[in-house]
Amino acid sequence: ETGVTQTPRHLVMGMTNKKSLKCEQHLGHNAMYWYKQSAKKPLELMFVYSLEERVENNSVPSRFSPECPNSSHLFLHLHTLQPEDSALYLCASSQDSPGAQYFGPGTRLLVL
Amino acid sequence: QKEVEQDPGPLSVPEGAIVSLNCTYSNSAFQYFMWYRQYSRKGPELLMYTYSSGNKEDGRFTAQVDKSSKYISLFIRDSQPSDSATYLCAMSTTGGFKTIFGAGTRLFVKA
């Protein structure tokens, strides 16, 4: 595996479900990011982890819960989501700040 | 006023044309400027990464930064149908992790 990988690529969930998104980076970077991308809107930064510590939390609702167990892995735990949370969720990594970020392919999430 | 403004397009050009994509910004503290290309159903791919003002060239792509005008550009020479994608500008300040993205310009290159 190379670059940044994300699983699953597609996810459909009901509002009462709990699911997790997984991201893994194979670039040796020390910072990881979660972004939300909705149609016709700029990428919205959700969370940033640097050296496994959360350094940015962009006023994200508590139904999104990030976890960074080590510098290569990042999770986004989802529970009781709303239909407006349907979007493409992108993971990225960078070396230091404000390094150029390398993105994964994203998870396309649909909340019914 | 948005921190970063980018015309969403779509921009349609014939194959071989020179394409000019632009963004304006309001925060004079931005020092790092990036351009990403995003194909449909894919994640953004880093194209150009520049620091402060000036030009940077990489193959058919040239990035320009004019900090005095708070204006950045990406030029694509000899455009190809494979260049059809959404192009995102992005910028950040020194010492922070927050990168601000434009909404993206949709480009179509017709064969």
Helix content of chain A: under 10%
Order of helices and strands of chain B: EEEEEEEEEEE
- Structural class of chain B, by secondary structure, is mainly beta
Number of helices of chain B: 0
Strand fraction of chain A equals over 45%
Unreliable stretches of chain B: none
Spatial shape of chain B: globular
How many E strands of chain A? 11
The parts of chain A where pLDDT drops under 50 for at least 5 residues are none
Extended strand count of chain B = 11
Assembly type of the chains comes to: heterodimer
| H-E string of chain A | EEEEEEEEEEE
How far apart are the first and last residues' alpha carbons of chain B, in Å?
38 Å
Count of DSSP H/I helices of chain A: 0
Computed over alpha carbons, the radius of gyration of chain B is 13 Å
Q: Assign a percent range to the helix content of chain B.
A: under 10%
**Main beta sheet strand tally, sense and closure of chain A:** 7 strands, mixed
Mean pLDDT across residues of chain B: 94
Q: In this structure, how is the largest beta sheet of chain B organized? A: 6 strands, mixed
Class computed from helices, strands and strand pairing of chain A: mainly beta
How much is the average pLDDT of chain A? 92
Topology:
The complex is a heterodimer of chains A (112) and B (111).
Chain A lengths: L3 E4 L2 E4 L4 E8 L5 E7 L6 E7 L2 E5 L6 E7 L2 E7 L7 E8 L7 E2 L3 E5 L1
Parallel strand pairs in A: 2-11
Antiparallel strand pairs in A: 1-3, 3-8, 4-5, 4-9, 5-6, 7-8, 9-10, 9-11
Chain B lengths: L3 E2 L5 E4 L4 E7 L6 E7 L6 E7 L2 E5 L2 E6 L4 E6 L8 E8 L6 E3 L3 E6 L1
Parallel strand pairs in B: 2-11
Antiparallel strand pairs in B: 1-3, 3-8, 4-5, 4-9, 6-7, 7-8, 9-10, 9-11
